[in-house]
Amino acid sequence: MPKLKPTALKKNLVVIDTNVFISSLIGQLGYSRRIFDELVLTGEVKMCLSDEVFAEYYEVANRERFAKYKEFHAKANKLLKLIGENAIWFKPIEEIRILPDGDDDKFLELAVAADASYIITGNSNDFVITMFREIKIYSPRQFYEEWMMNM
């Protein structure tokens, strides 16, 4: 029996936390970079965005402290343009307040609005839950390894 692509096995909608977006720009071979290069930018998974999440990506990516990384701001703006054009956009309507850092609740709100399968985050301090409703909350490594195992 042939193996099914992950998109045939499960929904391929993901919400990606800002720290994973930033890590994908800094790390050369890390899981965050692999998720963007191999899965998001190829369309294997569909990234979900809201105005609020995209604004946070933009604000954080343009912080001066990242200028120490070679061509960081240029790479960040190029990636922002690509994901902005290719993501599926949602306007969350449900207000959720459950995480210790209330600023992170916007990722749960987006995932609920999108009916996403995953939130990918490197923030284990504030994402103290591993599932919300039916949405799995995974580290970049957990997500990447599970996704590739189901290929």
Please bin the fraction of helical residues: 40-55%
What is the N-to-C succession of helices and strands? HEHHEHHEHEEEH
Radius of gyration using CA atoms only:
15 Å
Which fold name corresponds to the CATH topology?
Rossmann fold
Q: What is the mean predicted local confidence, pLDDT? A: 88
Low-confidence stretches: 1-9
| Main β-sheet, spatial strand arrangement | 3-2-1-4-6-5
Find the CATH superfamily.
5'-nuclease
Largest sheet: 6 strands, mixed
Q: How many domains in all?
A: 1
Going by CATH, the architecture would be: 3-Layer(aba) Sandwich
Provide the β-strand percentage band: 5-15%
Calculate the terminal CA-CA distance, rounded to whole Å: 13 Å
Q: Which of globular, elongated, flat, extended, rod-shaped describes the shape?
A: globular
Overall number of strands: 6
Molecular structure report:
This protein has 151 residues and is an alpha/beta fold. The protein has a single domain, classed as Rossmann fold (3-Layer(aba) Sandwich). The chain has 7 helices and 6 strands; from the N terminus they run αβααβααβαβββα. It has helices spanning 6-9, 18-26, 31-40, 51-61, 72-86, 105-114, 140-149; strands at residues 13-16, 46-49, 88-89, 118-120, 131-132, 135-138. It has a 6-stranded mixed β-sheet, sandwiched between helices.
Describe the structure concisely.
The chain has 151 residues and is of the alpha/beta class. The chain contains seven helices and six strands.
